[in-house]
Design a protein that fits this description.
The protein has a single domain, classed as Aldolase class I (TIM Barrel, Alpha-Beta Barrel), CATH 3.20.20.70. The strands form two sheets. Strands 1, 2, 3, 4, 5, 6, 7, 8, 9 and 12 form a ten-stranded parallel sheet that branches. The two termini are about 35 Å apart. It is α/β, with parallel strands linked by helices. Helix 1 packs across helix 8.
């Protein structure tokens, strides 16, 4: 069997959004026979990416706990009794050491999360110093710091930030069931500021929060109809944490997760689709089907903020079994 030759890393050219996706269209994709849907998504993936390459990102919580938002899924919310303690911002030196380890293990992007509703000006000054230090290691940088005020995205861009993560979480009509301390429109406003500053957008959502399939389609529609579409789309499966309102949510069947990956790939052909939180709940076969359906990025490391992730050695073994390789990155 022949395989595609490996090519140097290059982000696919991001085209302006050319198709407006209606929720009913995406519901029709979800309803396709499972293998037909996966096959169609695999075809789309191969038209836009090298199907053997997986982009590896590493995620570190640089400021944990005490978030004033009341997101029903989040163990870091101050509204929920989950045993996650409020901590101060980590030191630059500590973060740099973690970034060095991530790079040595093959990660090309270092993602940093802070449990804020949104940063204050003094926080932007501190995280800018962190971003500069990580960028100097030759890594892509990504930050998720909450809602941004006017001018903050430009400061982060000037510090060397490549991506800003700001998830839409769920469908617009489901949003108020998940969080009441902010609005869906608040998320869109920050995404607009991120785009205006020239940052790349990392934007996805969480499934398995007792939403309907129509609402899963609504989430994908919200993401796919951003103009331009996000460069990176993390698809999270709910990690049920004791003490959160969703600790007893109904478990999502693995086939529905694969379907969601496939629909995201078809609707956003140029985006990196990342297997994110909840991947530890998928066995190797289910993950393999996700890669076949168009997932081409994973969070790589034993921990995601405060929840567990598959061990790095296990990820490497699985990639070897599937003849997948880590995508390389050449810093500009």
């Amino acid at each position: 069997m022949t395989t595609q030759p490996l090519k140097p890393h290059q982000t696919p050219k991001l085209h302006a959004q050319t198709q407006y996706w209606r929720v009913c269209q995406l519901e029709e994709l979800f309803a396709l026979p499972f293998l037909d849907l996966v096959f169609r998504a695999a075809q789309v993936h191969r038209e836009h990416f090298n199907s053997r390459e997986i982009q590896l990102s590493s995620l570190l919580s640089i400021k944990t706990g005490g978030c004033p938002e009341n997101c029903a899924y989040c163990p870091q919310s101050a509204h929920h009794n989950t045993g996650v303690a409020k901590e101060e911002l980590l030191s630059v030196a500590y973060i740099v050491e973690k970034a060095k380890i991530a790079k040595s293990r093959g990660a090309t992007r270092f993602c940093m999360g802070a449990a804020w509703r949104g940063p204050k000006p003094r926080d932007i000054e501190k995280v800018s110093a962190i971003i500069r230090a990580v960028k100097d290691l030759g890594l892509e940088t990504c930050g998720t710091f909450g809602l941004l005020d006017e001018g903050m995205a430009e400061e982060l861009k000037a510090a060397g930030l490549d991506y800003y993560n700001h998830n839409l979480d769920t469908a617009p009509e489901k949003y108020n069931d998940i969080v009441s301390t902010r609005k869906h429109e608040d998320r869109l406003e920050t995404l607009g500021r991120v785009r205006k500053a020239g940052l790349k957008v990392c934007c996805g959502g969480i499934i398995g929060m007792n939403e309907s399939r129509k609402e899963r389609a609504g989430l994908i529609a919200s993401l796919a109809n951003l103009d331009p579409q996000p460069e990176s789309v993390p698809i999270n499966q709910l990690v049920k944490v004791a003490g959160t309102p969703l600790e007893n949510a109904e478990s999502l069947d693995w086939t529905e997760f694969v379907r969601t990956i496939a629909v995201a790939r078809i609707a956003m052909p140029n985006s990196y689709v990342r297997l994110s939180a909840g991947r530890k709940n998928l066995d190797e076969a289910a993950q393999a089907l996700c890669f076949l359906a168009g997932a081409n990025s994973i969070f790589y490391g034993d921990k995601l903020l405060v929840t567990a992730n598959p061990e790095e050695d296990g990820d490497r073994l699985l990639m070897d079994k599937l003849d997948l390789v880590a995508e390389s990155f050449q810093a500009a």
